[in-house]
């Protein structure tokens, strides 16, 4: 999977979680949703860092 596709998918998942939390759960589980969003953000950061480091390795002659 391309890094841009992975990052977009993770971003969409975060938005769906927030929408579901505010719509269906009536903000009762806001702590759990925030925790899950933080984990997804950290995973997305890892994907970004990994893709940047692999691009830098491929650029060096």
Q: Would you give an account of this structure?
A:
It is a single chain. With 61 residues, the chain is mainly alpha-helical. The protein has one domain. It is built from 2 helices and no strands. The chain is elongated and about 55 Å long. The two termini are 25 Å apart.
Q: Total helix count?
A: 2
How many separate structural domains?
1
Q: What form results from the Cα inertia axes?
A: elongated
Helix content range of the residues, please?
over 70%
Q: How far apart lie the N and C ends?
A: 25 Å
Sketch the topology as an H/E string, one letter per element.
HH
Keywords:
transmembrane helix, membrane, mainly alpha, transmembrane, 61 residues, 2 helices, elongated, 84% helix, 0% strand
Brief synopsis:
By secondary structure, the protein is mainly alpha-helical.
List the helices and strands and how they pair.
Elements: H1 3-23, H2 30-59
């Amino acid at each position: 999977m391309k890094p841009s596709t992975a990052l977009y998918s993770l971003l969409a998942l975060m938005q769906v979680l927030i929408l579901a939390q505010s719509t269906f759960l009536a903000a009762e589980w806001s702590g759990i949703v925030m925790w899950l969003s933080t984990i997804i953000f950290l995973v997305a950061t890892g994907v970004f860092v990994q893709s940047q480091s692999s691009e830098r390795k491929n650029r060096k002659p």
